[in-house]
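Re: beginner question about structure tokens

> Can someone show what the tokenized structure looks like for a real chain? I only ever see the sequence side.

Sure, here's an example I had lying around. Input first:
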Amino acid sequence: MKAIINRLILILFVSLAGSQTGFGQQLPQFSQYIFNGLHVNPGYAGYKGEPYIQSTYRSQWINFPGAPETFTVTADFSANEGTMGFGFSLMSDNLGPARTTGGLLTYAYRIQTGRKSWLGLGVSAGVSEYAIDGNLLDPNDFPDSEIPVGTINLFTPNLNSGLFFHNDKFYAGFSVYNMIGKRALEKEDVALAYHDFHYYLTAGYLLDLGETVKFKPSFLIKEVKGAPTNYDINAMFLFYERLWIGGSYRSNMKIWNDNLQENLSNRNAVAAVIEIFPTERLRIGYAYDHNLNVLQDYRNNSHEFSIGFYMTPRKAVMRNQRWF
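And the corresponding structure tokens:
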């Protein structure tokens, strides 16, 4: 069984790492993380000050056989007058015959550092499952004794941590994902790049451009072993506190990983992002990613949809800041 797992998962994830070289990240990426920091930082839990639940679906590289599809559900809320944040997240990520599912519980202790500023120290823990469906593989010589019929899977624990600072105009965060669990995979003689340490650094600022318009520039830097350093530069405009419109530019650069190929593309993708508040409690978002690498001529781009809901009692006054 170990030989089968080794062969299938090693081949698949080596291919995955190669296919994502242009995107520079093994964990699923989202274009709308700028409105739900729980995707990249457990210290974000409780930031909004209101119970909030969101679901996101991302379909990447449309019409490519086995193209990635990711579905998540996240929720968080604050307690004890905002000094604690709690949350959970569920994820399903499919790539051809491979499937990754996981669940995390999140806790953040929030320290008030000023009249309008807070520092969240967060941790999330849970379990991840890595699985491959042998029935979806298509060997040259059938039947292949090394390819099983049905699904094989592995489970591993997971732990993430993060810091998230914010006031009413500025935010910054740093987080580390996949802090434990690699050893459980190594016991099966499987070393998944997918489960290597992932580092995230992000920051943004809110500028008033008038009574009805605000501007929020932000960035995200992502680092993982064996891939180029990936960065996003974002620019979003808020109109009448109801409608966000803007975009992102995603690229990569070689900083720490000296052994990477010299011919890596430094242009990856641009994304158009829109978020709207149809009501005080409902939030709907959409992002369209367009490739600027070798895929740009194939029109196999990406779509991402999200819907969020503030679970505030009707008589309560909305006090969430929405900006980050």
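Each token stands for a local structural state, so reading them left to right follows the chain. The longest strand covers residues 118-133.
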